[in-house]
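Run Alanine racemase through structure prediction, thanks.
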Amino acid sequence: MPRPIQALIHPAALRHNLARARAHAPDARLLAVVKADAYGHGIERVYPALRGADAFALLDLAEAERLRALGWRGPILLLEGAFEPRDLEAASRLGLWHVIHHEAQIDWLAAHKTDVPQRIFLKLNSGMNRLGFAPQALRGAWARLDALPQVEEISLMSHFADADADAEAEADPHAAGALPPRGIAAACARWLDATAGLPGERSLANSAALLRHGRRPLHQAAAAAGGPRPEAGDAADTLLAADWVRAGLMLYGGSPDHPRRSAADWDLRPAQTLRSRLIAVQDLQPGETVGYGSCYRAARAMRIGIAACGYADGYPRHAPAETEAGAPVLVDGLRTRTVGRVSMDMLAVDLEPLRAAGRPAGVGAEVTLWGEGPGGSRLPIDEVAEACGTVAYELMCALSPRVPVRCLDEDGADPG
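Sure, done. The structure for Alanine racemase is below.
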């Protein structure tokens, strides 16, 4: 028989989280972000639950091909645009929208011979310093695009570096004014200054910005960093949610500002569960150690269980190995912790909390690494990620291909 580890995808949770995203921006349209194979969940698995979105956003042409093969005829946005000139041929064939974030992409588009109208999202670098035009270069890029006959419509977008922080400008008390202001307030101020008077729809908010600041007027957020204040009736005084929101992590049940607020605080449900079973039990005497490197030493007599899950399955090897805290885990729905170093195929868990609760666990007991557990129990992926010094995005995306994945029915049943 196969190893007992498996991942479960919860379509009902995806639908619920999509509805929560819409509730936070009822007047905006929604781009469901499915990059990195839908954050490790699988584009084909999430599509039926997310096709109620207004559009999809992703990175590469192969994923766009898969969406079209599923029957999606609506908009698809390439978040990083074309990587080389020939990508534009496939983008036109597939009817894709694409981001323009550097001058070379404009050159490629100018040379692209097509009868397919091009919908462009022109990106501003508002402080992230990854992709996008500098504020002083944005208008020149817009003018170049506007002059191209291939371009049907130009929208404007940016991506915030500090959307999970407060809207007020973050000041360094030791900088004595030498450093530029940072934080989402400063980014909003840059955005308003750079885009003032330019036509086109806007897209600013990812999951963090949508949940934390989506209903806040842009000028109000920017004012905290000394940004411009709107005149009465100024049409530019729109909400930060703007015309298009880009929902990513929240669709899959992760909190974009954990630990400040949990997924439950945002009424988000886990879309992925990773579960396994105990395949062995060991009784330790005081002073005995667990796992490679003998990192964990038992301070007292204790029982541990060995779960069929390791770093080759996508569980983080850097989970705490030497401390009493470990990483959180559920065994038969009760919360406990990992002990010792995570191996390629196995990890050890402390079974003493179950014995203390009068529910001793043995071989075959269900182990929830994250997600939904038995009896209504739940282990947020954000908590596991925090304990392991990483983020929920990484755990979702790192799920190994060797882990079998099942997509549950809408009522949560396993179709087998």
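The two ends are 15 Å apart (CA to CA).
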